[in-house]
Specification:
The protein has about 270 residues and is α+β, with helices and mostly antiparallel strands. The chain has 7 helices and 14 strands.
């Protein structure tokens, strides 16, 4: 469904402006201190010149080539980019809220490239362990208990408190919590799928507070975006998994376990919100 702000969001405190690089409108809430907003809207590196100089992106590229969980000829590498710190970045695209990822490489899939400018299909994210990437690529996101072409059934990984179906989220950080870090070389790696989904086929839900409080110490994700995301629209539940299209895989390379590094850094940003 399209985003509908609730009565607690003061539209007078929302500033929107066009971003020449996108067809969306970036949004800013005055509930976010200017210094915090400016420091966490760094944008992204794009193009071979910038990406060749980006050490983390080169590591991510090496990672996907070593793992081979998606055939190399299925990537659209000309559309790759590396997202910098964008913890407070949010846009309005096609009547939906798009939240830009942070500190990760985006590897676009040829199968999902055609949805780039189809903003009637909203952006969402699904975090997973790297061991599941190949199966998800081959079979798509399917609900627990579904039978795959090879005869195996999908195991339930994280619960289904709102019912059986496919769970996604508009918040990259929330999806990241479900991406179990893998130790690779001297790094920790997480994988998150960027998807596009038909908003008519999904329901918005609140978040599972127990897991997020355990991982981050808090679960009020809407605070991080200054009221531009409501507390009851953290998760999406799709009953029809065919309404979800894989557009890209995001690869995050950490120097330390994110539970001891990046998550703590984000909580510090959270704590600065008005």
């Amino acid at each position: 469904m399209a985003y509908k702000p609730n009565d607690n969001i003061d539209d007078a405190k929302v500033q929107g402006y066009k971003d020449s690089a996108h067809s969306g409108v970036r949004l800013k809430s005055n509930k976010i201190p200017a210094s915090v907003w400016n420091a966490n809207n760094e944008g992204y590196d794009y193009g071979s010149h910038a990406l060749n100089k980006n050490g983390k992106h080169q590591l991510a590229l090496q990672f996907i080539k070593e793992k081979k969980f998606i055939p190399e000829n299925q990537y659209s590498h000309g559309d790759d980019c590396y997202y910098k710190k964008n913890w407070c970045h949010i846009e309005e695209r096609g009547g939906h809220r798009y939240i830009r990822p942070s500190n990760c490489s985006k590897f676009v899939l040829k199968s999902g490239k055609k949805y780039f400018n189809q903003y009637n299909f909203q952006y969402a994210y699904h975090g997973t362990a790297t061991k599941n990437v190949a199966s998800i690529y081959q079979n798509g996101l399917v609900p627990s208990g579904a039978k795959l072409p090879n005869g195996q059934r999908v195991n339930q990984a994280h619960g289904n408190m709102f019912g059986n179906g496919v769970y996604t989220t508009k918040i990259p950080l929330y999806a990241q919590l479900y991406a179990t870090p893998e130790r690779w070389k001297n790094y920790y790696v997480q994988t998150v799928f960027m998807v596009r989904q038909d908003p008519k086929s999904v329901w918005e839900k609140g978040c599972e507070g127990a897991k997020t409080r355990n991982m981050l110490g808090r679960d009020d994700f809407h605070v991080l975006y200054g009221g531009l995301v409501d507390s009851n629209e953290i998760q999406f539940l799709a009953k029809d998994h065919k309404s979800i299209v894989l557009q890209a895989i995001l690869v995050k390379i950490h120097d330390v376990d994110p539970r001891n590094g990046e998550y703590k850094d984000v909580v510090k940003i959270w704590d600065q919100m008005k």
